[in-house]
Amino acid sequence: MAYLRIRRPHRLAPLFRHYYLTEDLPEPVEGTVLVLGMNGVFELAGIERRGVRARADAPVDAFLVSTVNHTVYCTVELNSAEPHRTFTVAARFACFVNDAVALLRNGCTHAAEQLTSYLYGLVNLRAELAKHRVTDLETVHAVLISEAQAEVELSPPSIPGMTVQRPYLSFLPYGASGLVTKSLQSRPSEGTDG
């Protein structure tokens, strides 16, 4: 997502309407939409020949939002049963923006931040990891995956305006050389548009 603050609009003849000029706007790229925001109100920009007609004589925030499928990577450190030793939980989420205005209206400018918070919020997984030593990862891997899968099924990731699929999780003990991975079932989780 690209962000640009656009200064005051220009008054253009013959009707002296206010426009944010085309050269002041972010360059549109295929697979993106331009959303303008002012005072917490967001709307898709209707680009005309001269630019975008301004609703008011005021600066505006312009967001260029990608609407193509993309992958979001998140990593969190969760405590193990050993002091000062943690498990690294890496997740890969497949995401698709289905409503850019709703996405911005709900304050999501970086999906990775919200999905990282989601991973920290997996309470049962955190509790299960805290019961095990990092050296036991190979033996308790099946338990961790089943715990993660059950919790994701009960509380799937959700971002309003975005479809997020169930994550692919990887567990890595602190200081280990290789990943132990397992994919959770990949069923889409619809965000609410409101």
Could you explain the architecture of this structure?
The chain contains four helices and 13 strands. By secondary structure, it is α+β, with helices and mostly antiparallel strands. Strands 8, 9, 10, 11, 12 and 13 form a six-stranded antiparallel beta sheet that branches. A four-stranded antiparallel beta sheet has the order 1-7-4-5. The protein has a three-stranded antiparallel beta sheet with strand order 2-3-6, with no helix packed on it. A hairpin with a 6-residue loop joins strand 8 and strand 9. The longest helix has 18 residues, at 137-154. The chain starts with a strand and ends in a 5-residue tail after the last strand.
Helix/strand layout:
Blueprint: E1 2-6, E2 10-12, E3 17-21, E4 32-38, E5 41-44, E6 51-53, E7 60-66, E8 70-79, E9 86-97, H1 100-105, H2 111-120, H3 123-130, H4 137-154, E10 162-165, E11 168-173, E12 180-183, E13 188-189
Antiparallel strand pairs: 1-7, 2-3, 3-6, 4-5, 4-7, 8-9, 9-10, 9-11, 10-13, 11-12
Helix pairs in contact: 3-4
Short note summarizing the structure:
This protein has 194 residues and is an alpha+beta fold. It contains 4 helices and 13 strands. β2 and β3 form a beta hairpin.
